[in-house]
Amino acid sequence: MDHPEDESNSPNELTIEEPMNRLSRAASTTLTYLHLDADKVLSSFGKFGRYQMLAYLLSNAIMACHAASVMIMSFIAKEPKYSCVPKDASSNTSAFALNRCTVVDAANRTESCLHSADFHIHYPPDIVHATLGAEFNLICDDEHWASHATSIFMLGGMIIAPILTQLSDRYGRRYTFLIPLWVAVISNIVCSIAPDYTTFLVFRLIAGVGTVGFSTIGWVLCLESVSVEFRSLIPFVGTISWVLGYELVGFLRMAISSWRWLYFTISVPGLLTVSYYWLMPESLHWMVIHNKTKGISKYLKNSSRLNKKELALDQCRSSEDCEEAQLTRGPNEAAKRTLFDILKFPALLVHLLFQCFIMSVMNAVYWGLSLFSSDLSEDEMSGYLLSGFVELPAGMLAVFLLTIFGRRTVSAAALLAQASSMAAAVLYPGRNWTSMVLQLLAKVFNSICWAAQPLLLAELSPTSVRNIFYGIVGFVGEIGSIGAPYLDILKRLDERAPALVLALLSAIAGVAVLFAPETKGKILPADLNDFDAGPVWNYFFPKKAHEDIRNGEAGHSQK
């Protein structure tokens, strides 16, 4: 009599059980990471977790490239020394040079020295290849074109910021950080070998697109890669890196007279960032919000190996309230957020407008003080190097203040102190030690603000729309950057006008910061329903913010 086969050895059962086991493992993995709290995971790896510090250092190190690619314009965009001289010194022509740009011919008619048959522009031998103006004849009526190289760089960043940040919230921080970084590096190298000024401007625009892109995404990636306990220390390495790039341009300028070699020298080290492809991890916060289980698993594996620490994931879950909120809005709803979701919530929209204004003022003051720092003293290099150096102690002071006081307090105090310094500088116009000290003091307070305010901005915005929010603020904020090179035009009205305008705007921005919520020591809001509208909004509209969020969630879930 034949015995029936053991069911466990049935080949049919094996082919059924194996896929079922794989499905079970996949489902188990999904459930394991379903309610993971990214902040709790990062905190569990420690305040100075090695893997987290790697992402922190990498995202901040490239700020030296950003600083150098902007500050180089302080030297290569300066008006060169030149004169209008006869082409043939022995000629008996009755034409003569009226000034550096204009020639009066034999018929008593004026013409440009650039187009004269008898005269030409002469540059001293050490100036010919030192600046853009000398090499491409950006002088006289074309002098303003040299300033456009700075503004078009900022314009490139302004164009790309809202687009790139939307892509970053949808497709991840890592690639939207790396691709702009490499685009910026290649574009800057091309700028150094540009055959004509049009080519230079085109690639300068592309370099701006990449530079502002990787800086914006890099800041958010940095914030989302470290623990809550470490966030107050974020400006430390970023400040050192920025000042290094800033000062490096000045020291290299003293050794390299050619603008092309100077530009190439500050750009080519960027090729080392190819290594970031293997070193830079994705944001854990973004992966949790988007339920990227494979990415989370890889992150935890790499982090555990480098930190030599295994986590108990059951202790790194969201609170019951957060889990309930996630179930209410659905697992993928936060991943679908767009600008229109921000526009639906008045409280978030108001904060967006305030932050846009504040960022514009910060940019205008910083670039206004930095780009014209070589004019602070008779010796252009002294003013430039001092203006960059003061950012270092300012950054260290900012880190100290941020560990003691809240982000909002430090930001508001710095902006108001900046306003006071600029207002005092109005009383001492011209080149003098008092004016220079006051402007350097304003730079110190501005640097403190740059350490605190972006931190406040990133921490108050929900993860699901953080890059969109940050991108819009960056987009509008670049208005201040683009306008900074033209602040000197205000001097036609009064020499003190630029400082007075910046002082007034800084004071208004300082008051605007007080409308923001305090974010120190708080976990990052995951989605819109976690957003804190701040003390002023909550005082005047105690229920409206919560009603807006509930109504918005309901409307979003019905789509």
UniProtKB/TrEMBL annotation:
PROSITE patterns in the record: MFS (PS50850)
Compartments where located: Membrane
Regions crossing the membrane: 54-77, 145-165, 177-195, 201-221, 233-255, 261-279, 345-369, 381-405, 468-487, 499-516
One GO MF term: transmembrane transporter activity
Record's GO cellular component terms: membrane
Main localization, broad class: membrane
Domain of life: Eukaryota
Pfam family, one: Sugar_tr
First and last residue of the signal peptide: none
Family matches, as PANTHER family: SOLUTE CARRIER FAMILY 22 MEMBER
Stated name of the protein: Major facilitator superfamily (MFS) profile domain-containing protein
Source organism of this protein record: Steinernema hermaphroditum
